[in-house]
Amino acid sequence: MSVSGQFSLHYSWGCSGPYATTTVTFSGSGTIGTFVTGDGFSGKWSQTNGNVLWRYNGDSAIYAGVVNGGAIVGNMANFAASNHGCFYCSKPTASLAGEAAAGAAQQDHDSAGEKKKK
Known about the structure:
Layout: E1 5-13, E2 20-28, E3 32-37, E4 42-48, E5 51-56, E6 62-68, E7 71-78, E8 83-90, H1 96-104
Antiparallel strand pairs: 1-2, 1-8, 2-3, 3-4, 4-5, 5-6, 6-7, 7-8
């Protein structure tokens, strides 16, 4: 499966929940390209066989996952902020739009692993 297109990104820094939700849109040839998230971050991504890797611009978070059916499952790290976590991506559904807004408020860190400003 190519990861090109829009996915719902569910992430938890520290892997202890709750999972916040945002969107991530992968554009490009289906094996390498750029991405943008619903919370305003962007970067580059690559897919080789069933492995997916993406990195945020500005040396922020790095995500590495495995395509499993129609989903991507993996972990992430922000070395600058000494954060790590777990994530999964799924194709979005209409009901996830409201969950994305609610989920983002549940995390102390955004999808790039940066501490949210209050």
